[in-house]
Design brief:
Strand content: 5-15%
Number of helices: 8
Family: Belongs to the short-chain dehydrogenases/reductases (SDR) family.
CATH topology: Rossmann fold
Keywords: Oxidoreductase
Protein name: SDR family NAD(P)-dependent oxidoreductase
Helix content: 40-55%
Number of domains: 1
EC number: 1.1.1.-
Distance between the termini: 32 Å
CATH class: Alpha Beta
Largest sheet: 7 strands, parallel
Bound molecules: nicotinamide-adenine-dinucleotide
GO molecular function, one term: oxidoreductase activity
CATH superfamily: NAD(P)-binding Rossmann-like Domain
Radius of gyration: 18 Å
Number of strands: 7
Structural class: alpha/beta
Length: about 260
């Protein structure tokens, strides 16, 4: 049967023509790579980020390639801002078929995420607000129109950090990404009867400016040697998996946690 086509099987299952994708953290490294990938597959793009400039930069790049895209500034720590952003996206595009919950805390609050003895309730709460509560609120907000339109795809970006236990860092980040994995299955279970799929991507180490600043070249080399393929991921590797999960080729894939690590 190898290589044999089933009657009527579509060979263009990764095309996203006519669909609208909302990417949170779309101004960041993985978000930007995913935006470009989905746009080239035919989707129109809503780029949501707390930082206006990078989001507008991604939109300018997309428009430069002739794609339809718009930037939306939002602080995902606040429910009212999330709801207003979804409303603005609906007003601009009229539909949301793909939701990529990609944003997560980085920078200063993330650097404050150290050991238990150094943890504060503020750092913990902010981490969970952005990394778990926002994806839940966003899924809730887009669900009614997905149900009305007959389906949709939600892709949550978790992290391979849940496979390891660090003694020095990630005390709030790692549990938040673990909670996001469980939320993924709940969204999948409740969305399933409405043809709404939800999966999570678990990136390993991805070569971004943020990771380079945090670890430096030498430590990144040590890390890449631990992977079976002896290399860390690029943002484009994560974008490719998000694209697959968002597309019709993944129509039978839901509730899954998919590692993209280079082999651990
Ligand atoms: N880079 C890696 O090695 C790696 C590994 C595993 C998982 N991840 C996950 O991949 C995703 C993307 O990471 P990245 O490396 O592209 O990081 P990044 O910092 O480049 O992008 C994250 C984006 O989220 C935005 N953001 C942060 N807080 C926000 C808020 N409150 N409201 C709205 N936007 C907010 C930031 O402005 C940024 O543009 C994250 O969920 C991250 O946890 C990354």
């Amino acid at each position: 049967m190898s290589g044999q086509r089933l009657d009527g099987q579509r060979q263009d299952g990764q095309r996203l023509d006519g669909r609208v994708a909302l990417i949170t953290g779309g101004g960041g490294a993985i978000g930007a790579a995913t935006a470009i990938r989905l746009a080239r597959a035919g989707a129109r793009l809503a780029i949501a980020d707390i930082r206006r400039e990078p989001a507008e930069q991604v939109v300018a790049t997309l428009r430069g390639e002739g794609f339809d895209a718009e930037a939306f500034v939002v602080n995902l720590a606040h429910e009212a801002e999330i709801l207003a952003m979804v409303e603005a996206v609906m007003a601009r595009f009229g539909q949301i078929d793909i939701l990529h919950n990609n944003a997560a805390l980085g920078g200063k609050p993330f650097a404050a995420d150290k050991t238990l003895l150094e943890m504060t309730a503020e750092v913990w709460d902010l981490t969970f607000a952005v990394n778990v509560r926002a994806p839940m609120l966003l899924a809730k907000a887009v669900l009614p129109q997905m149900i009305a339109r007959g389906g949709g795809a939600i892709v949550n970006t978790s992290s391979g950090v849940t496979d390891i236990t660090s003694t020095e860092a990630f005390t709030a980040y790692a549990p938040s990404k673990g909670a996001l994995q469980i939320l993924t299955r709940y969204i999948a279970a409740q969305g399933g009867p409405h043809n709404i799929r939800c999966n999570a991507v678990l990136p390993g180490v991805v070569l971004t400016e943020g990771m380079q600043a945090m670890f430096g070249d030498d430590q990144l080399k040590v890390m890449s040697d631990r992977f079976m393929l002896k290399r860390v991921c690029l943002p484009e590797d994560i974008a490719a998996m998000v694209h697959f999960l968002a597309s019709d080729d993944a129509r039978q894939v839901t509730g899954e946690l998919i590692r993209v690590t280079g082999g651990r």
